[in-house]
Amino acid sequence: MAEPIGLASGLLALTTFAFQCSVSLYETFKSFQSRQKRVRDLLEELEALSAVLSSLVALIQENSHINISSLELPLLRCGNTCQEFEEVLLQCSSRSGGSRTSFRGWANLKYMGDDIDGFRNLLAGYKATINIALTDITLRQSSATAEDLREYKELIQDTKEDLEARLESIDSKLASVIGKELAPSDPDATELRSLQVERLSTEKCLQICAQLSDHIRHIRIDSDRLSASTASSGVGTSPEGVTSQGLEECKSSLAVTTAKLEKHMQEVMERLLAKSKKAVSSEEESRDLERLRDEWETARQCLSICSKADDHWKTKVSVIENHGSGDALQFMVSANGKVLHGKNRATGWRTRQVGGYMSDESIQQLSRDIVTFNLSHLRPEVPNLKKNADEPSPSQDDTVEREMTAEFRQRYGHGFKLSSETSSEVTASSPGPDSGRA
């Protein structure tokens, strides 16, 4: 069994600790040789958790510079939870007597008031959160398909909902413990009720801040108009620039407010736990209360990790899937530094594809160059024609392009303009219906 570890240890040590505890718990459960479905499901969950932790260990060993300190508390809690549940299982088995293979007390196995299925759901939350953080790092360093990104987005949303449900369950358990067995006239009972109301009020304020912050992230200002207006009149003078600046200030203010509320929530919880310990009647209940506090903090940290990953998905990643046929020109470029994930796919007689990271000026120049190149290659060679000074030259392609109507371009594609003299000569030199006859 792994030795206890604290947050002061390094991230690699915490990850290794959690991995070892999950493997140890898996081997202990495996030794019971039970074929009950709930045991099989837990073994599968432990196996998946160990695989995710093993990948995280390898990533940290290969990239010592990465910063995922937000995982410290979830990793510590994951390891401690596996360790504590293994102790509960062994104690329950020893009390029942007999060999491990004949153990039938799975229904009586409880941890923090939950049965095996509840414990499995708890581990699933750790696994999903760690997997999200791991995937977020991997996406910043490598490519992925649009299908992979859609699955990642669904994983984030599902995990957030599960964690919110977990927090509600913890709140319910805390509410049942707080003020337990204290007389209504007891001064501690009155203070406990006040602290509980304050905690719920702070929780509501945090929800309001989160909703407002999410709403601000969804506000979109036309980036082209913003770029054009800021380039001509300055960031602080255009309506879009003023709005963008105001939104950024609002986000910063919300972040400061949220940090203050989080700190206040921690202080309230500490005071609640200190008062509630007077209401519990056994050492085990006191430990459960501390575990609830730790699990409450961990669930909130996991939820924060998911929210940041979701924000990165929405604001830092562009998913592009280009499909073209025939005469296709495809652009898959990023001019604002956003991460690109996607593909250019085209079939046909001529396709041109551009991909990568470049400035707006480079994109515009590249577009002009491609149009000029296409027009020069589309110009047919007419033999035996006299050169005319009015004939459009390659340098006049921009003028020709502007004079084309949209209907002509859509029906016939790019063309070029003939002078009236050249047209007459072509008509005159063309053989008539009777030419070549005797």
UniProtKB/TrEMBL annotation:
Give positions of region: Disordered: 382-438
Limits of the Azaphilone pigments biosynthesis cluster protein L N-terminal domain: 2-210, 241-306
Keyword annotations of the record: Coiled coil, Signal
- Please state the span of the N-terminal signal peptide per the UniProt entry: 1-18
Can the keyword Plastid be found in this entry's annotation? no
Q: What domain of life?
A: Eukaryota
Q: Which residues form a coiled coil?
A: 146-180
Q: Report biased composition (Low complexity) as residue ranges.
A: 419-430
Q: Which InterPro entries match?
A: PigL_N
Here the segments flagged for biased composition (Basic and acidic residues) are 399-410
Protein name as annotated: Azaphilone pigments biosynthesis cluster protein L N-terminal domain-containing protein
Its source organism is Penicillium cataractarum
